[in-house]
C-alpha cells in the first residue's frame, strides 16, 4: 500500500511541474556501507563522526529532501578477507556507496569488488598513493594522499641539511608504497634512503628489536617511522630501551602518531618519555564552521556512541565526517540529474553461481558511473576545509601541521603545504598570496631534539658495525714523498697520508681504518684501477695523490682538494745569450716594416703641406728627397731641424710625435728585458706546439695524463712513452726525440715541481692546461667525504696544511718558469696608434687639397679674364701647386694659405704666368 501511495505522489508531482524543470525525486531510503576497524585509534573516532554526519544530513531539509541515509557499519579488524566478505554483504542489500575502509591494505582488496559492482568506495584514511591509479577507478580518496605527506617529510630532511634517512615501516601495502614514494621525493632533492628497516605485519617485539638493532648500525641517524598506531608505539618503546632516542638521533613519524596523541584525553607521561624531541605530521584542517560545530558536540556524541569511554576528535574524524557529506551532495546531484537507484545481475557472477556463497544476490549498481561522476564534481566547505577533487582525484590544498613533542605536550613549529612548502604561517594565509616556494622562504620555528637540545643533529655518524675502513693507497715506486708503503712492515707514510691523518683527527667521532697498499711494488699502479676498487667494494676509500678528474667523479665522491694540480709540460731548455743583432728582437719583422713605411708616409705628408709656403721644404729635387728622408727619421729622436709653418703640418707632426714616443718607450723597455734577463729556449712553447709536432711525449706510469692526451687532445698512442721515475725523466729528456728519448713530458704539477728541485736544466713551458686537484675518494653520497672536506678546509685555514707540505716537499727552483722568451712587439699592439696617425694624415691632405683647388680656381678665373680662350689643365694645376706663393718669399712669414688664397693678389698670378723653365729654375 505504501509503495502505491509513493508512486501516486511522484506522479502527481510530475503532473504539476512545468515542462523543462528538473526535480529531485529520490527514494525514501538510500543504503550506504561503512567499513572501519572499531578498536583502532582512527576507527573509533571515524565511527562516531560518520554517525554524526548521517544524523546531521537526515535532519537537514536543504539536502536530499525526503531521502534518508541509512548506514550499515561493519568492523574489518584490519583484515582484507573480512573486508571482502563485508563488502559483498553490503551489495546484497542494494548499497550505493561504501565509506571506508581506513586501511590501505583492505582498500586494495575491496577496490576490486567496487570495480566489479560499480559501487564508489570513499576512503577517509587509506592514504596509499597507489590507490589513485587507473586500476581503481571507483576508489575515491577523501583525505590527502601519502604522496604529499612524503613530500613534506622530504622537505623537512632537506631543510635541516640531512642527506640520507633510515626508513622504518610495516611491510604491507600501506608501509611499502608510502616508503617507495618517500624515496622518490627524496631523490627529487638529491637525497636518499640509506636503509629500509621493514617490519613484518604482526611481528613480535623481539623481531622489531632485531630490525632496530640492525638499523642502528648504519650511518644515518635520521629515522622516518611509517607504521600503524599499535606497531608504531611499540617501535618507539623499543627504540627508547635501545637508547636510539638519545642525543644525535632524529625521529620523524608520519600522521599516525598525531592521530594517537590527539585522540588521547590525557597524554601518558610514560608514553611521551619514549618520544621526546620527535617530529610528527598532522593533516591540516581549517577553522571552519562545520569543524567548530562538530567539536562542540563531540563529548555528547562520544557518550551516546561508546557508552562513556572517552576519546577526543582527531583529524581523521573530520575527513570521515566530510566523506558522508560529500556522498550526500553527490547523491543530491545524482537525483537532480535524473538518476535512480537500480541494480542489475552481473553475468560473470551468474556464471559461477551455486553453492552456499549466494552470489546470485549480488548485482551491479546501474547508476554507479553517474554517481562517481557527481562525487568527483562535489565542491563545498566541510569540517576539514574545502572538499573538492582535482583532475588527478586528489583533495585540493594538501597541507600538514609539523608537530614537535616537548615535555608533556605538543608544539606546532610550522606548516607544510603543496602551495608554498615549509612556513610558520598557516596555509589559509598563504593561499591569499602568490606562491613562494623558494629556499629563502622555507622557515620553521626552533625545534627540540632527542637529548633535550635545540642544536640540529648532524643526522649521521660513522657506521658502528665493528668494521674498519679499508683504505686503498697507491704503492708507488717514484715520488715516494707523496705516498710510500713499506712492504715489510706494512707502514704507510708520506705527505698525503699525513694530510688524511690530520683531517681524521679533526672529526668529532672516531674512525677506525687500515691502509692497504695497491700495486705490485715494481711500477706505479694504475689510478683508474685503484678507483674502481671502491666501485667493486674492495676498498671503502682511497687515500693518496689521486687527481680529481671527470671520469672518476662519475663513480666516486671526492673530498675538497688538498693540493692544487694540473697537467704541465716539462722539457729541457738551454740558455740563450745576446748577440750582435739583439737590438732587432723587440720588434717583429712586420713591425719594423710598418714603422719604416709610416716614417716615410708622415715625411711625405708634411712635405706636401709645407712645400708651397716653407723654404725648408723647397729646392732641387734631390735636396727635397733628402729633406723628406731626414725629416722623417729625425723625428724618431725629436731632432728634426725643419720648422713647420702650416697649421695642418703642425697637427700631423703632433700626432706623429706622440706615436713615436709610445713606440720608442716600448722598444726601450723590451730591449732592456732582452739584454738583462737570462733567456731560455726550447723547441716546445706550449701544448699546441707539442701536439703539432711528431716527436715522442713522455708521461708518468699510472697517471691520467695518458688518457687525457689520447682521448681529449687526440695525440696518437704511438707517440706516448711511459716513464716511471725521475731518473727516467732526466734520461729521456737528455736523449731527446732523435736518440730514442722524448721531446717533453706531460705530468701533474706537484710531481714536476718536485723533479725540478734537483734538476736545473729543465723547465715548465707554456701554461697549465688542466685545472684539478688531489682529493680522497669515497663511495657515492658518503657523508665521511663531506666531513673530511670540512676538516681539510680547517687545516688550510689554520696553516697546518702548509706545514705538512713544508715537511715533505721543498720549493722548486727559479728555473721552473712558464715563460721562456718575452713576447715580441707586434703590429697589432700599436694598430690603434697607426690608425689615428693615418687618419690624421688623410684628413690633413684632404683639407690641403680643398684649399689648393680653391686657390687654383680663382687663379684660372683671373687669367681667363685677361687672356681669353686659355683654359687650365692638369699640367698647369701641378705647376701651380709646385709654385712658391709670392707672399711667402720672405722667410719667417706665417700667414695662412687660406687667407692668401682669399686675397687673390696679382703678384701670385703674375708669378705663375712665367715660363715653365724659369719657374723650375727658381725652385
Automatic annotation (TrEMBL):
It comes from Urochloa decumbens. Residues 888-923 are annotated as: Disordered. GO terms for biological process: cellular response to oxygen-containing compound; monoatomic ion transmembrane transport; response to wounding; signal transduction. It comes from the Eukaryota. It is found in: Membrane. InterPro entries: ANF_lig-bd_rcpt (IPR001828), GABAb_receptor_plant_PBP1 (IPR044440), Glu/Gly-bd (IPR019594), Ionotropic_Glu_rcpt (IPR015683), Iontro_rcpt_C (IPR001320), Iontropic_Glu_rcpt_pln (IPR017103), Peripla_BP_I (IPR028082). Residues 470-811 form the Ionotropic glutamate receptor C-terminal domain. Its main location: membrane. Glutamate-gated receptor that probably acts as non-selective cation channel. This is Glutamate receptor. The chain crosses the membrane at residues 591-609, 651-675, 827-853.
